[in-house]
Amino acid sequence: MAEALAPLTVFGKTEARLDRIGALSIAERPDIALASLAARRERLTSLEAAAPAVLGTALPGVSRVAGGTIRAFWTGPAQWLVEAPYDTHEDLAAVLKQNLGGDASITEQSDGWCAFDIEGDATIALLERLCAADTRAMTPGDVLRTTIEHMGCFLICEQAGHAFRLWTARSSALSLHHALTTVAAALP
Amino acid sequence: MLIPHPLLGPRDAQEFTYLGDAALIDRPDGLAADAAERFFDYGYLRDNPPGEHRELWFHEQGDRSWLVVTRNITTHEIVRVELARDVALARGRGR
């Protein structure tokens, strides 16, 4: 009998990685499903009308996040990434396709990305050493894409000045983790 | 250098890549009788005036939109930034 296949995290483990460095915690979040959502040509208005049935709220505008259990964040004009808990929404892309497939192109993204939740009073000190984003000015629900050590990342503000979520490509997640932990350890 | 993105506000130029003259938006008709000649001009000929210059920039490490940046290449002042999509639509392109 073959053993059941168990998914591995970015670090090749079965448990999510958690680093506590000083007043900071950097937590890997393998438990989030991700899908991309892009309005089809001339279908933006009908997509915007249909989206609240799935998100519980309107699609977020420029550089904003919106939703509840299923949450979307703006990535570009008429484009979003959609997050949901993996346990209950492993089929996130299929659910979106079923509800919005006529107006938008949807692709499964869960295994292409890696999320880190950064929390603590030193979060701003960490991020301002790593990227050019004005994280100090970001309010909860703000999102922007920037680079950290040449790696593209989405930066979502969860709690102003205190908690941020970072989405990065899974293929470079170890390098990003190295950058985060190295800089965190060097904070005064 | 900061580029004032029409949607996102001022963003570091490091996040952008540069393509070239915004005249590249006006791609010739590939089925025209003189298509070969027009594509030669389109591919190789560029005006290189001092002063204001319209250029295509790509916000690669941002929202991935193409911009038309009007920049004074003698003073480096950025005069105007538009979404390339809006410029193309205004010029009668389909998208």
From TrEMBL, chain B:
<dbReference type="InterPro" id="IPR038561">
    <property type="entry name" value="SoxD_sf"/>
</dbReference>
<dbReference type="GO" id="GO:0046653">
    <property type="term" value="P:tetrahydrofolate metabolic process"/>
</dbReference>
<dbReference type="Pfam" id="PF04267">
    <property type="entry name" value="SoxD"/>
</dbReference>
<protein>
    <submittedName>
        <fullName>Sarcosine oxidase subunit delta</fullName>
    </submittedName>
</protein>
<dbReference type="InterPro" id="IPR006279">
    <property type="entry name" value="SoxD"/>
</dbReference>
<dbReference type="GO" id="GO:0008115">
    <property type="term" value="F:sarcosine oxidase activity"/>
</dbReference>
